[in-house]
Amino acid sequence: MDEKVKQLASATGNKTSKEKVADEETRWYVIHTYSGYESRVKANLEHRIDSMDVRDKIFDVVVPTEEEIEVHEGQRRTVSKKIFPGYVLVRMKMTDDSWYVVRNTPGVTGFVGTGNKPVPLEDQEVEAIMKQARAEAPRLKIGFSKGQSVRIIDGPFVDFVGTVDATFPEKGKIRVLVSFFGRETPVELDFLQVEKL
Fold this sequence. Notes:
Blueprint: H1 2-12, H2 17-25, E1 26-33, H3 38-51, E2 58-62, E3 65-72, E4 75-82, E5 87-93, H4 96-103, E6 108-111, E7 113-114, E8 117-118, H5 123-133, E9 139-140, E10 149-152, E11 161-168, E12 173-180, E13 183-190, E14 194-196
């Protein structure tokens, strides 16, 4: 009978009281790592979870990343950037054993919390982080700021020098003020058509 209740509950989206208790015990926590060691900490922690047999207490280890388009030396490339450098998310039941496994993983400097007490993330915070990491379209990294001097390297205004007036990352465009006959004229260009001076 208990199995039928679970099947019905999962089919309707309702949770049984046992599942609710398990969900309340299972929370997302943030661990602090040495900067640049996030992926290594994830691999070490996953190895320790298996070797110390705590799969029933530690469920997920996530390094939140997002895709970003970078323009470097006139070339576009998509790179994976960490959303929170120096931090890793862990979904776990907080017990003495699970705390010990995570805390003593090489590269982990501690849990984020007050004093020695780890503070779990709120569900809305976790959803916002995961949504950002699951974004389908890569974000365009803007390497230009208003007032910066740039040289136009492509198009009808090649070799002109101008000043950045505005950036439009959603369109991948930049507006540059270029001097024609002693008067500044705004010209809209692609990010690939300009370089920093």
